[in-house]
Amino acid sequence: MNNKFFIKLYSCLYFLYSFFPQTMLGGLPQPYDSIIVLPFDAHGWFCNASQLQECFSKNKIQTIIEVGSWLGTSARFLAEQAGETGKVYCIDNWKGPINPAPFEILAYKQHKKRLDTSYQQFLSNVIHSNLTHQIIPIRMDSLEAAKALNVFADLIYIDAAHSEEAVCADILAWIEVVGKNWTEKKAK
Question: Is 14 helix (H, G, I), strand (E, B) or coil?
Answer without folding.
Answer: helix
